[in-house]
Automatic annotation (TrEMBL):
UniProt name for this protein: Succinate dehydrogenase iron-sulfur subunit
GO terms (BP aspect): respiratory electron transport chain; tricarboxylic acid cycle
UniProtKB keywords: 2Fe-2S, 3Fe-4S, 4Fe-4S, Iron, Iron-sulfur, Metal-binding, Oxidoreductase, Tricarboxylic acid cycle
Entry cofactors: [2Fe-2S] cluster; [3Fe-4S] cluster; [4Fe-4S] cluster
EC number: 1.3.5.1
């Protein structure tokens, strides 16, 4: 495959950025999107040009590091992470635009790399859960209904990639926050701090500069882990109950 790439280049957080055009050849349809960028970077290094900075770690769809806006879609045309996106999803001769996540809460560090530590601060503000960390408890001593266990596990699949924020016109982090609140709120172990946790995490979400949810749904459509929109309903319900002192 041969491709034309328009890639966002920005030397640092306060530098002016611009889209720069590159041509790449000999791209296999079986390469991942990041492997295609590796080929381009080898080409740039051989030419004595600064390679393109982009984030990745596991390259297995687990860590959430690799998010890119690809031709206007978070993680590109497939519902997966950028590292699990393959070049067979594109046509030879195509022009692909590659940009970093665009959100005030995710400032650009360099080129395609953004600072997503705002997500870490939201999680930190939720604090700890009060569980006895002594010897492993007997498995049946805390019964958890299957539907609640399933919903908790499904919510815990969120990898903090930030695609929901990048896809949302309000740059809201409510799908991420809803997933975090729901995965603890469904379990008995998450009950003692449930009300305080949702209030503190939402306060941090707003202070970090994420926008509010207006029920557009782009977040859930872009989420590679298929976190459903109803975690935001759970978040709002918990918040209402906490405000009434019922949690
Ligand atoms: S909710 Fe989905 S899109 Fe948002 S951070 Fe979690 S995994 Fe990524
Ligand atoms: S590099 Fe870990 S999810 Fe893509």
């Amino acid at each position: 495959m041969e491709l034309t790439l328009k890639i966002w280049r920005q030397a640092g957080p306060t530098a002016k950025g611009e889209l720069v055009t590159y041509e790449v050849k000999d791209i296999s349809p079986d390469m991942s999107f990041l492997e295609m960028l590796d080929v381009l970077n080898e080409q740039l290094i051989a030419q004595g040009t600064e390679p393109i900075a982009f984030d990745s770690d596991c390259r297995e769809g687990i860590c959430g590091m690799c998010g890119l806006m690809i031709s206007g879609e978070a993680h590109g045309p497939e519902r997966t992470t950028t590292c699990q996106l393959h070049m067979r999803s594109f046509r030879s001769g195509e022009t692909i635009t590659i940009e970093p996540w665009r959100a005030n809460a995710f400032p650009v560090i360099r080129d395609l790399v953004v600072d997503r530590s705002a997500f870490d601060r939201i999680i930190q503000s939720g604090g700890y859960i009060s569980v006895n960390t002594g010897a492993a408890p007997e498995a049946h001593s805390v019964p958890v209904p299957k539907e609640k266990a399933d919903r908790a596990f499904d919510s815990a699949k969120c990898i903090g990639c930030g695609a929901c924020v990048a896809a949302c016109p309000n740059a809201s982090g409510m799908l991420f926050l809803g997933a975090k609140v729901t995965h603890l709120g469904e379990l008995p172990q998450g009950q003692p701090e449930r009300g305080g946790r949702v209030v503190k995490m939402l306060e941090t979400h707003d202070l970090e500069g994420f926008g509010g949810c207006t029920n557009i749904g782009e977040c859930a459509a872009a989420c590679p882990k298929e976190i459903p929109l109803d975690v935001i309903s759970t978040l709002n319900a918990d918040l209402r109950q906490a405000a009434r002192g019922a949690l």
